[in-house]
Design a protein that fits this description.
There is one protein chain. The protein contains one helix and nine strands. By secondary structure, it is mostly beta strands. It has a single domain, classed as Hypothetical protein, similar to alpha- acetolactate decarboxylase, domain 2 (60s Ribosomal Protein L30, Chain: A, 2-Layer Sandwich), CATH 3.30.1330. The strands form two sheets. Strands 1, 2, 3, 4, 5, 6 and 7 form a seven-stranded antiparallel sheet that branches. Strands 8-9 form a two-stranded antiparallel ribbon. The model has no long low-confidence stretch (mean pLDDT 91).
């Protein structure tokens, strides 16, 4: 993984480039912790050799995993970084990937192996975002300060 600071004003912007073989979520979490990012928006494009998409089952209040064991293009990757209830950076990514035949799959990014690259722009927000446990869903959701 490589990264470059693109803007160092009140709102830092980074280009984070992952290489073949990098695990996407581990790399993004490691980057967020190393840069002490507590609030940011994420966008990206690239490709994976395989991944796990997650779907939140409302009735069961749990994530279902869908393995994708093939080369796919990342058509859209969007997400955020916030502070988790434990105080660590929490990376939350949704994405749409395209298969060879043009069909698309979408969901939460669980894990993914990059091949050949993943190009991510991380734009830090000046406001601090923190997640709190939501008793209705059982999820850690962003809580806005009043």
């Amino acid at each position: 993984m490589r990264h470059k600071l693109l803007n160092d004003s009140a709102q830092r912007t980074f280009a984070v480039i992952l290489d073949s073989g990098d695990e996407a979520m581990e790399s993004l979490k490691s980057f967020a912790a190393a840069q002490r990012i507590s609030a940011a928006q994420i966008t990206g494009i690239g490709a994976f050799s395989g991944l796990v998409l997650k779907y939140f089952d409302w009735e069961k209040k749990t994530y279902l995993e869908n393995r994708v064991d093939e080369q796919v293009e990342v058509a859209s990757l969007v997400g955020d970084i916030a502070v988790s209830p434990s105080g660590e950076p929490s990376v939350h990514v949704h994405l749409v990937v395209g298969r060879r035949d043009g069909t698309a799959l979408a969901g939460h990014l669980g894990s993914a192996r990059v091949r050949p690259t993943l190009e991510v722009i991380v734009t830090e927000n000046p406001a601090h975002l923190q997640k709190a446990h939501d008793p209705v869903t059982g999820l850690a959701l962003i809580k806005l300060e009043r």
